Amino acid sequence: MLTVEQLEAFERDGFIKGEVVLNDEEVELLRRELDLVLEGRTEKKPVLNRNLLDKSEYGMSMEANETIVQVVNIWMASDLYLQHAANRTLCEEVAQLAGTDTLRIWHDQIQYKPPVTGGPTKWHQDHPLWPIIKPSELISAWVALDDAVIENGCMWMVPGSHTWGDHQRHLLHGADHMPQHKRPELLPAGVEIKPVPFEIKKGQVGYHHCMTWHGSLPNHSQTKRRAIAVHYMPGNIRFEPVGNHPMSKHIQVQPGELLTGADFPVVYTK
Ligand SMILES: O=C(O)CCC(=O)C(=O)O
């Protein structure tokens, strides 16, 4: 369980580091399972398995040889990843942060930055990229499958930015990989954009709010940077389509209804 200090820090900053939730053996099993999925050797398949930079969703021009392997909903291909999403510590702590008694999986996401050629993940806010669900109260649990450090492309976060509203369309990824705002006059008075590195040890979890500005640097090091993020929906999240998303075709409820269904499984109830 998270301490009062951690809960206060999350409220203030929009992200916190948690504990090491997976031991070396558990990480190794997830790494092997990831290899099977990437090699297409599982019977069931994930929703997406692609180089995120091939046709950047973010409209970014990338160096041609850069790669971010993105797998969306690996839990659909691997029971081990479904078990991971239901990890008791992760779920209890996300429920604490969200103030909810129920959690469903919105979707999960592997981001694997290979050594040397791993590319940058553009600065963004998650919820504006998920235009089919509301309210913006989702929380992600990002667990490192390798030590994630500055050199191999750990995430960076902007403290306090989860309270600044939706700035997604004004966010730029600078040449120095730091965030820039196209129209700073739209930011709340007095706020400062001060990104901080969010280094996470192998097996450790970092939590972030779905409105927190975050991004990650390229991996020019010799080590892999693999991670599994589970984006959790508190019990009040509804289907409110104002755009499209890779998960749209998995939705069977009507607009305005709670986003329930087999492809959005409940992984926690209090
Ligand atoms: O793994 C990364 O570098 C980015 C992941 C991310 O944007 C997220 O989990 O919301």
UniProtKB/TrEMBL annotation:
Q: Where are the transmembrane segments?
A: none
Q: Which residues belong to the signal peptide in this entry? A: none
Mind telling me which InterPro entries this protein's record contains? Phytyl_CoA_dOase-like
UniProt xrefs under Pfam families: PhyH
Q: What is this protein called?
A: Phytanoyl-CoA dioxygenase family protein
